[in-house]
Amino acid sequence: MTFLDYLQVSIVVIVLAVIATKAIYLRLATGINPIVIASSKGAWRIVEILSLASVLLWLTEVILQAFHSRYDIFPKRLGFDFLDGFVVKILGAGFVGLGLVTFLSAFFSFGKSWRIGIDRKTPGTLVTGGIFGLTRNPIYVASNLYFTGIFLINGTWFFLIFALLAAIACHFQILREEEFLRRQYGRDFEDYCQRTGRYFIW
Predict the structure, then answer these.
(1) HEC letters along the chain
(2) Does residue 21 belong to any structural domain of this protein?
(3) Domain residues for 100?
(4) What pLDDT is attached to residue 119?
(5) 96-131: b or e for each residue (b if 16 or more CB lie within 10 Å)?
(6) Residue 202's pLDDT is what?
(7) d(CA 152, CA 159)
(8) Nearest residue to 200 via CA among 146, 143, 145, 138
(9) CATH number, position 131
(10) What's the structural domain count of the chain?
């Protein structure tokens, strides 16, 4: 295994550990279940379940690639020489690292308002401080950086397609969450939107 292989595995372990720790803490501290994915009704419930299954498949492929398993599900590379270059792989590692920093910053800023999914029964307070002063959606920004970085490191069709589809899926989920936040927080959320970009400065 190379440094980049260890990096991929380490980031997966860190992200999963942070999510699990935060979920357990919130459950014990507030009595609220912060993981409300697949609690929607109708077609959105199916979309959320499929999204979760896709992420689990992606995590499996990351581990298989990192360990150079002969049982790799999607080993086919794109075949472009530049993707095998050192600079591209280091750029990918940079994206992954920046994604992790953004992700951890969001978790610290979220406090007790963190949820996975839209919590209509017990929503937290509107968070606008910390990294949320730079972007309204740091978790999705982190995810896109991470998915792109993993593609640049591995250069396979699967990671490219996943990164593109994930970016589209994240955008539609953001729009869905914004609709909920407008109804929930009204003018406070509108003012927040005026001063803070959906992704960065745009």
Answers:
(1) CCHHHHHHHHHHHHHHHHHHHHHHHHHHHHCCCCECCCCCCCHHHHHHHHHHHHHHHHHHHHHHHHCCCCCCCCCCECCCHHHHCHHHHHHHHHHHHHHHHHHHHHHHHHHHHCCECCCCCCCCCCCCCHHHHCCCCHHHHHHHHHHHHHHHHHCEHHHHHHHHHHHHHHHHHHHHHHHHHHHHHCHHHHHHHHHCCCCCCC
(2) yes
(3) 3-195
(4) 83
(5) beebbebbbbbbebbeeebbbbbbeeebbeebbeeb
(6) 58
(7) 9
(8) 138
(9) 1.20.120.1630
(10) 1
* One pLDDT digit (tens) per residue for the chain, 202 residues: 889 999 999 999 999 999 999 999 989 988 888 888 766 677 777 888 888 899 999 999 999 999 988 887 877 777 676 678 889 999 999 999 999 999 999 988 988 888 888 888 888 899 999 999 999 999 999 999 999 999 999 989 999 999 999 999 999 999 999 999 999 999 999 999 999 999 976 5
Cα dihedral: 103, 166, 116, 18 (round 10): -30
Residue 201 domain flag: no
CA distance 136 to 147: 19
Dist CA 32 CA 22 (whole Å)? 12
Asked if residue 142 is part of any domain, the answer here is: yes
Global model pTM greater than 0.85: yes
- Determine, yes or no, domain membership for 89: yes
HSE at residue 144, side-chain half, CA atoms within 13 A, is 15
